[in-house]
Specification:
Blueprint lengths: L1 E5 L6 H20 L3 E5 L6 H10 L1 E4 L8 E5 L6 H9 L3 E4 L3 H15 L3 E5 L5 H8 L6 E3 L13 E6 L5 H14 L1 E4 L5 H14 L4 E5 L5 H12 L3 E5 L15 E6 L5 H18 L6 E5 L1
Parallel strand pairs: 1-12, 1-13, 2-3, 2-4, 4-5, 6-7, 6-8, 8-9, 10-11, 10-12
Helix pairs in contact: 7-8
């Protein structure tokens, strides 16, 4: 069985940056004994990464009342300005791990607000990134997940449009086109470049293999998009968080297996999946000629 890894898979720039900041904060807190280290919500959407960070000393909280003084890491998804002010008033030292691309959206939204645009955010209402974006629009923005929801937006206003960094490009294009036909729009494509490349690579790989394995947190939006994209090619697709969820029966007739991974999936989890597949194949083929390579 040939094992192919998508050209773009695993940690993105924003996650790598956040992890480095988390490690540096733990080191600083330990050296200076300046209190505990917290994150307001999981730093990234990967349970295994969050668990590892908790073991190292970062406590994940959902409410500021659950924390004492110390360091507060702002997750990659960002937060609303009023939440930042509350953290500062409580005496925490903020370590801002907001992805720079998410922060760029905040700046765009604030400019739209200043210039009198009604703001539309294309994305998922309950996602923390979108909630943070809403906070920078004075809570006046409309969030839409599909073109069918556009009828809820008041007419006769100029519209400023941004999009969640992990949204599917096809959905963004569809909604943007519909908006352009209905309103005077200023549209900013704020989908993360790495997200677009990851989605393209996953789709191309899924078309040439017998089965796709998407590795990533079940609570990860960008990983869920990869699962959708792979399934749409018609290739059998399974979503797992770790190698422990893999089943031998999935690969019974497979001669090519493809792997991709979400932006918050660490290399060590991807490698465990690859090793599991190699062990499976070596058991089926005693000559041990499994081939693993990057797909491009």
């Amino acid at each position: 069985m040939e094992i192919l890894l998508a050209e773009s898979a695993g940690f993105c720039f924003g996650v790598k940056r956040a992890m480095q900041m988390a490690y540096q904060t733990l080191e600083e807190a330990g050296k200076e004994n300046k209190g505990r280290v917290y994150s307001l919500g999981p730093i990234v959407h990967n349970p295994q990464v969050v668990s590892k960070l908790e073991e190292m000393g970062i406590s994940v909280i959902q409410d500021l009342d659950d924390a004492d003084s110390g360091y507060m890491i702002v997750r990659t998804h960002g937060i609303a300005p009023e939440k930042r002010e509350e953290i500062l008033k409580r005496g925490f030292k903020i370590i801002d791990a907001t992805c720079p691309l998410v922060r760029k959206i905040h700046n765009i939204v604030q400019k739209f607000e200043k210039d009198g645009y009604r703001i539309v955010v294309i994305g998922h209402k309950d996602h923390p990134e979108v909630k943070g974006i809403l906070g920078h629009s004075n809570r006046k923005a409309h969030v839409v997940e599909s073109a069918e929801e556009l009828k809820e937006i008041p007419g006769n206003e100029k519209i400023g449009v941004v999009v969640q960094t992990t949204e599917r490009l096809e959905n963004f294009r569809k909604i943007s086109l519909a908006l352009s036909e209905m309103y005077d729009c200023s549209i900013s494509n704020t989908i993360c470049y790495a997200t677009g490349e990851r989605q393209k690579a996953a789709s191309e790989l899924a078309k040439v293999v017998d089965i796709m394995i998407v590795v990533g947190g079940k609570n990860s939006s960008n990983t869920a998009r990869l699962v959708e994209i792979c399934k749409e090619t018609g290739t059998v697709t399974s979503h797992v968080e770790t190698a422990k969820e893999l089943k031998k029966s999935w690969f019974k007739d497979a001669t090519k297996a493809g792997i991709t991974a979400g932006a918050s999936t660490p290399d060590w989890i991807i490698h465990e999946v690859i090793q599991w597949l190699e062990k499976l194949d070596s058991g089926r083929n005693k000559t041990g000629n499994t081939r693993k390579k990057k797909h491009s």
